[in-house]
Amino acid sequence: MPLPFANRTALPAVGPDLRALLRLAGPILVVQLAQMGIATTDVLISGRAGATALAGVAVGASSWIPLFLCTLGILYALTPTVAQQVGGGRSSRTGAATRAAAILGLVLSGAIVVLLTHAHRLFSAMGIDPEVQPVAAEYLHLLAQGVPGMVGFQILRNFHEGHGRTRPVLAISVLAFLLNIPLDLLFVFGWGPIPGLGGPGCGLATAVIWWSNFALMLAISCADRATRRSWGVRWRVWPRTELRELVRIGMPMGAAMAFESGLFSAVSLFIATLGATAVAAHQVAFNITAFLFMVPLSLSLALTVRTGQLLGARQAQRARALVRSALAVAGALVAVNAALLLGTRHELVTWYTGDLAVQHTAARLLVFAALFQAGDVFQVVLTGALRAHKDTRVPMWLAMLSCWGIALPLGYLLGMTPLLGGPFGAQGFWMGLIVALSLMALSFALRLRHVSTRQPVAAEPPKQGGELGAAPLRAVHSSGE
Q: Which of 47, 179, 440, 445 counts the most CB atoms within 10 A of its CB?
């Protein structure tokens, strides 16, 4: 992995910034795990309602996830925008960016609701099992009722995380995870006058959770005097410039996330043709790596915030030093994850299944996962740094080339054909992922090296003073992550 910065001289001490980064990453990790916990709860509880209910929820969720991640990517443009404004002492301008995100969110919400409520047409065209189609369609129809709340919560989350405040999001996410369990049980199986809806009840529970999250986040935001002051500045002015900037940054981010999630969905569909054992083993191995991925993902999200604040304060050298330190942490994560996967793979797979054939195949896939996660860890951390620089268009094309130009064709050739010495089955697709994610990490590193040299460097710390060269940055730490 090449270092992304050419200039290695006179880099400042990174200790305080790295500690601040890790303080941000910790709560974000809990939030990500809570969100995964909600999805896992839906699967476990819908499974108790029968195979058709579980299949319907699985089909509905698989159809929704790429759209969900694309939406999150677009809205996430608010985070580096707010972070740079806060770092540069321009907190009063964060209100205009947030209003622009709200306008964009309204448009996205309307489009998503229309798509989800007409998803039954897609299921019919795809030839999904006729018994599963109505369950999946009703699940998405109920889920759609909560989409505006989900979008509103994500906008407020990005606003607060751009300021370095993660405790409100942490508290709400943990509460949502705990609340989702009784709501799933209530709407899936019913109680008293409330009828059981089966699998679609998970969609209704999620919609209630989303609206609750938004209401709590809005109440917390309105109770904060600084937030009300920044939102109230020139609220009648149409945020044309900010809206254009969010679209410019966010659309490539959303597209890149859709490319990557779509790749994994496509790989799963191809592996599904190889038999039940291959499908189950792939799902087990992928779920294990997904949990491990939450740590570097949280580091990446925190890196976007912290690096964006430093860049906003024109502290480009400190931003470079921080990214180098984050890459060193990423390297340590790769080593730890590889040791865990290789050393305990046989024990890990027994937590998921008692089928010996599935266990054997999944354990073999985890050997590839040890290599797969190396490129994945570095590429997601580098993605966070690129987002902090508001560089998203070129990374989008690099992601598309890596995912759809390399990973899927190479995986298909290795997994399904004898052209390259195969077919190797599911292992062939994982080989393709290893090559593609490694190349993605390399290309992102070279891209970051290029864009970082264009950042302006302050001749001296801004006059606001303080440890971080700008008063708002110092205030971030005292406000509570």
A: 440
